[in-house]
């Protein structure tokens, strides 16, 4: 095979999504306004095809397009997680969009565009490819946040995310340009070579600005300010997309940049990661206690969980990266299940979002209450559920790296955060019943059941999942 044909073969999932988006946009120009057509079904098929190609395709590592992108086990693992998040958010969101009378046609196209940007971002091997993927993802996300044009909260969320996102992108780009100026290259491998033995003050400044932009995308403190408002204001399927697929891509590129471009500056970037990890865990634990809106609570929960995941990254070891990947995979499942339950919160055809609306759910819908309770227990890290093992691996990596204070703060933050997860369970099981919810759609029932059973029974046979994750983590080294 020629270098170009080999590169296209390794990039087949991205090619499929790009061609699919162009085809759907063309269809949109030709369609009649009477029907949205099978746009969502085609988009789900494209995402499913991309997942199958990644799982069944090339297994060896390849650097493509003159070193701009890389196809390796770490990238393939994180791409599959992002694709699963996108596909599930699409499937869960269609009934919601139809009931709220939101035009559905553009939604799957924007999700595909954002997912394409995520895949480029995850595979980036230099700062130019990273920025292209980041902007392709972000531009679609700005529109998705304000997708419900007739809703004031959604418009406010979209505007806030756009303004702050543009600021963070500028800071990231400034940091990348500083690194280029002092290292003389935009390739991650070249930057790694330039930082061996001596890290100049210019590269440290560039690294700080770079981490500012990446922390914004991960919604890590102190660059989290957009998260609660956007989670609450955006349509719930969009919030589910932000909390699942987008989070996978942001954490993946942060891990790749730090581990492959700055191994010689580990002392410097570890201080940054430890700082934002502690702040994120603490804010996520305490700020969520007083929340009454379930989506806003999930926003602070997401901030806290990013902090927990970064505990593994702070270790700077292969075990640490493995812990981050395990954490993000389990967090993806817990998030999708939680939002399946939130999307099922409808009374007399209208969506409700207050935690008090869950009161007495165990009496009106015991099966949904049980599944949602399992997800809350898992998010709190209660053994033997999957969320416990996620925290176990990242805390263990921190202890192996002698980061004892970070691990202790993480455990204490987890104990505080358990309060508001258990409060949701208490409201469902012990409060007087609120009006019963409408029967959930089959898609929401399936997602809620599968995710709950995963977190409930992962401990019974974790070997396949753990082995696959360990192999993917090893490829980064």
TrEMBL record:
Recorded catalytic activity of this chain's protein: a quinone + NADH + 5 H(+)(in) = a quinol + NAD(+) + 4 H(+)(out)
Enzyme nomenclature, EC number: 7.1.1.-
Molecular function per GO: NADH dehydrogenase (quinone) (non-electrogenic) activity; NADH dehydrogenase (ubiquinone) activity; quinone binding
Domain of life: Bacteria
Location within or outside the cell: Cell inner membrane; Endomembrane system; Membrane
Subunit structure: NDH-1 is composed of 14 different subunits. Subunits NuoA, H, J, K, L, M, N constitute the membrane sector of the complex.
UniProt similarity note: Belongs to the complex I subunit 2 family.
HAMAP family attached to this UniProt entry: NDH1_NuoN_1 (MF_00445)
Name of the protein described by the UniProt record: NADH-quinone oxidoreductase subunit N
Source organism per UniProt: Methylocella silvestris (strain DSM 15510 / CIP 108128 / LMG 27833 / NCIMB 13906 / BL2)
């Amino acid at each position: 095979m020629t270098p170009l044909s080999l590169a296209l073969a390794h990039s087949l999932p991205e090619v499929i999504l790009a061609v699919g988006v162009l085809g759907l946009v063309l269809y949109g120009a030709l369609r009649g306004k009477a029907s949205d057509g099978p746009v969502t079904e085609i988009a789900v098929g494209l995402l499913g095809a991309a997942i199958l190609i990644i799982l069944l395709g090339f297994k060896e590592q390849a650097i493509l397009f003159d070193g701009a992108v890389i196809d390796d086990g770490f990238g393939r693992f994180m791409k599959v997680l992002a694709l699963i998040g996108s596909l599930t958010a699409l499937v869960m969101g269609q009934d919601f969009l139809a009931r709220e009378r939101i035009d559905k046609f553009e939604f799957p196209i924007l999700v595909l565009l954002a997912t394409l940007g995520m895949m480029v971002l995850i595979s980036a091997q230099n700062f130019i490819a990273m920025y292209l993927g980041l902007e392709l993802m972000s531009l679609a996300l700005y529109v998705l946040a304000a997708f419900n044009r007739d809703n004031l909260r959604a418009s406010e969320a979209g505007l806030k995310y756009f303004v702050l996102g543009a600021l963070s992108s500028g800071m990231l780009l400034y940091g990348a340009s500083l690194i280029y100026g002092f290292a003389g290259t935009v390739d991650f491998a070249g930057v790694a070579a330039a930082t061996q033995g001596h890290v100049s003050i210019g590269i440290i400044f560039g690294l700080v600005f770079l981490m500012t932009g990446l922390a914004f995308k991960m919604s890590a403190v102190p660059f989290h300010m957009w998260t609660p408002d956007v989670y609450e204001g955006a349509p719930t399927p969009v919030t589910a997309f932000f909390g699942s697929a987008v989070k996978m891509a942001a954490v993946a590129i942060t891990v790749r940049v730090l581990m492959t471009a700055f191994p010689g500056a580990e002392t410097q970037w570890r201080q940054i990661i430890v700082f934002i990890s502690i702040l994120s865990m603490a804010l996520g634990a305490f700020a969520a206690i007083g929340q009454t809106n379930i989506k806003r609570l999930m926003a602070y929960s997401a901030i806290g969980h990013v902090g927990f995941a970064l505990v593994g990254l702070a270790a700077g070891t292969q075990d640490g990266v493995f812990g981050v990947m395990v954490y993000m995979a389990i967090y993806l499942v817990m998030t999708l299940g939680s939002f399946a339950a939130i999307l099922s919160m409808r009374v007399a055809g209208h969506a409700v979002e207050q935690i008090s609306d869950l009161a007495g759910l165990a009496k009106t819908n015991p099966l949904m209450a049980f599944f949602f309770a399992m997800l809350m227990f898992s998010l709190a890290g209660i053994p033997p559920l999957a969320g416990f093992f996620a925290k176990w691996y990242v805390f263990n990596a921190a202890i192996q790296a002698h980061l004892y204070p970070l691990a202790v703060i993480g455990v204490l933050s987890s104990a505080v955060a358990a309060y508001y997860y258990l409060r949701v369970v208490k409201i469902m099981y012990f409060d007087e019943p609120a009006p019963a919810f409408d029967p959930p759609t089959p898609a929401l029932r399936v997602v809620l059941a599968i995710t709950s059973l995963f977190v409930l029974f992962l401990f019974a046979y974790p070997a396949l999942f753990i082995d696959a994750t360990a192999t993917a983590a090893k490829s980064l080294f």
